């Protein structure tokens, strides 16, 4: 019991500190996050009903622009590699319900650099042929680049999306 209490006391600041790095953002606002300019816009609003309850449905857009002189780059190796840390910033809608399979957040990720690779193999007829296949060689976000994405947030009726931004880099 003492160990459980001690564990809870130690983990409480960590759990509370998860959103410490997040900044609030509202419609049409641009904020600076670690050398990146993040803009959030509401594109459209309509009222919907889900499960017999009224909600407001917002179509939103988010853009991140690299305003610094620092580029981000993840180069892949020559063997199969799974890369999951390509996110730059995450916009989290705190009051989104996720109803009707809609989003609760937008994660803006680095761009993929595609490379054409040739390979040789025998086809079904036994003939030796050479083909090209596109593969991802790296992920990048250069100075001056901008990345945008759209999402649908459903929030309780009468509320606007309560959005916070946090840096993933």
Report what the structure shows.
- It is a single chain.
- With 169 residues, the protein is mainly β.
- The protein has one helix and eleven strands.
- The strands form three sheets. A four-stranded antiparallel β-sheet has the order 1-11-6-7, with no helix packed on it. The protein has a four-stranded antiparallel β-sheet with strand order 2-3-4-10, with no helix packed on it. Strands 5-9-8 form a three-stranded antiparallel β-sheet, with no helix packed on it.
- The longest helix is centred in the first third of the chain and has 16 residues, at 2-17.
- The chain is flat.
Question: Concise description?
Answer:
It is built from one helix and eleven strands; from the N terminus they run αβββββββββββ. It has 169 residues and is mainly β. The strands form three sheets. The protein has a four-stranded antiparallel β-sheet, with no helix packed on it. It has a four-stranded antiparallel β-sheet with strand order 2-3-4-10, with no helix packed on it.
List its salient traits.
about 170 residues, four-stranded antiparallel sheet, flat
In order across it, which strands form the biggest sheet?
Answer: 1-11-6-7
What integer value in Å does the Rg equal? 22 Å
Helix content bin? under 10%
Mean pLDDT: 86
Q: Largest sheet, described in full? A: 4 strands, antiparallel
Low-confidence stretches: 14-19
How would the global form be characterised?
flat
Discrete helix count:
1
| Strand/helix succession | HEEEEEEEEEEE
Measure the end-to-end span. 38 Å
